[in-house]
């Protein structure tokens, strides 16, 4: 089942992005700039983690999405790109995504000697589990595992399952968080 | 700004947090000071603004409408509890529980402009005629000093003010004079499944009135199906009291947020003279006015009166009767649910569309009034399920498919009889950030309500079994909880010895002080209280206007 621009728009609406975002259109530049216009730090952050630029966040989130999204889903890259357009907006939440992605990237380099996007899907799955993101409960202010669960894994799962295509995978075309109208609840199974 | 973590912390904003550049100084020559910007306060303010100089003080913040999607994300994500959605809790909202049952107060309210309508479900039924005469008709509690007929025109007006979608197909509802302002929402698919079972059992189903737009109304959107009505409607289709706060401000009212009233002061002629309120910069101000309307809900209203004790009123302001804080009531939840061997199409919307009031007026001394609800949100929401668990990818999808799709459930509300031992008092040794004793809640529930929950359960289970459901849970007397409707703590009575306010909701003790709140309900019925709160608030507005006219 293919994710579409409509799904990305729906996901953005569900997860509270600001308006006026051009979905699916990458920001100017080759990734050296942050989409909020802030100057990209070229050194490691204070805690030793590299703070990735927009391009790196997009690449890593897409790579993780291919693992945490189910097999029937296609169109993942454009979908992830689309909703990150609305999320990497200079907000506190956007910065949380950026920092958590930095931790995933750092772990991948340390443990697999390669960026997240270049390791196999099985290795990506292992990476996330070794980070503890499978058993952690999401917490934006918690441990690294809890932050990765919150800002990376659950961020992606929230985007998918609050979209109409994600909902339809489960059997609900108007999932909670998606403004799918006030008619679908009256209709019977198809 | 996007994201659940981009929402400010309402507690620190509203409590002892940093100052801002908002002018929170008192308004000179105010005619009316309203304490509380929930639905009651907002409707009173709107009623009086334009003709009168009105000031509204609220303890909580003014929420940015642009944050509603982020608050919705908080409602969905497991990291946030219900109080986190609107920043309830912390020192500002500290309280104690001392009764038979725990009362989750901070799950049950929102402080700020709009009050608890920001997180309410939005169900707006009128009380039944017998609810106003419970003592006479059912032998339980006092009669109200007003009749249904007294409130009937105000009910109609409240339905127009809030914007109510409803139909006149309920044979058990009290008489009404005109259709609802909007057509009712269509029944759900699962309602149609319930309908067959109910028909077999001779149980009637009918529509329910929703304070939620079934079509564009009052410059607000029709419902677009976000499905998170409780605790947040991002579209504005569900009524909340910011509607009337904004309207009152447009008509000249001054609304001051983050201004918790510490006490009301009075003179030697039994008139309230000022509301003393704190501001985020650490300051304290006195808002003087000719008339005062306390509209702080069923817990903070009695607390404020008790905090305002003086030499003249040693037991609390307006408390010569001794009843301030007593008779704390809520509605009790009764429910049952299970699964079918077919799809039931749940969780598309966050409200219900059919109910049964057939058994309501069977109430007597031993059975409380109760109503039944047919849920459209039984079982788990897939997106919420997806965010918990140790799986992802295909195994997660499989778990979601297994967990979603075949649930059905019913709910119901049961009246709690008034009991003086169920009460709100001041804590002995715990204070809030301003040094004021926090509210202590002693919530007790009597056998009549518990027995009635069992009766409601019997009917619910019979319907579910007729439907062919595998009944998997029953919320009976041991598992019941409150519906977050705080009532009864400044009861209404013609007798100054028996109640705190008179039939006009004016305090018996102080000439220029009214209470607009469910705290004035002498008995609670089993209908969601907000439409009655709104109707009473409109009536209070008229009475205050008339009194001010006479004074001047």
State mean pLDDT of chain A (0 to 100 scale). 84
Overall pLDDT of chain B? 96
Low-confidence stretches of chain A: 18-34, 37-48
What is the CA-CA span between the terminal residues of chain A?
17 Å
Largest interface, with counts of residues having CB < 8 Å to the other chain, equals: A-B, 61 and 60 residues
Backbone CA Rg of chain A = 17 Å
What percent of residues of chain A adopt helix (DSSP H or I)? 40-55%
Q: What is the CATH class of the domain at 4-124 and 231-330 and 419-444 and 489-551 in chain B? A: Alpha Beta
> What is the level-2 CATH architecture name of the domain at 4-124 and 231-330 and 419-444 and 489-551 in chain B?
3-Layer(bba) Sandwich
Label the structural class of chain A.
mainly alpha
| SSE topology string of chain A | HHHHHHH
Oligomer: heterodimer
Helix segment tally of chain B: 13
Which range does the strand content of chain B fall in? 15-25%
Question: Can you describe this structure?
Answer:
The complex is a heterodimer of chains A (190) and B (552). Chain A has 190 residues and is mainly α. Chain A has one domain (5-15, 51-179). Chain A has helices at residues 5-14, 54-68, 76-87, 92-112, 121-130, 144-161, 164-170. Chain A starts with a helix and ends in a 20-residue tail after the last helix. The relative contact order of chain A is 0.17. By secondary structure, chain B is of the alpha/beta class. Chain B has a domain at 4-124 and 231-330 and 419-444 and 489-551: FAD/NAD(P)-binding domain, CATH 3.50.50. Chain B is 25% helix and 16% strand. Chain B is built from 13 helices and 20 strands. In chain B, strands 6, 12, 13, 14, 15, 16 and 19 form a 7-stranded antiparallel beta sheet that branches. In chain B, a hairpin with a 5-residue loop joins β17 (423-431) and β18 (437-442). Chain B is globular, with a radius of gyration of 23 Å. The model of chain B is unreliable at 12-17 (pLDDT under 50). Chains A and B meet through α1, α4, α6 and α7 of A and α3, α10 and α11 of B.
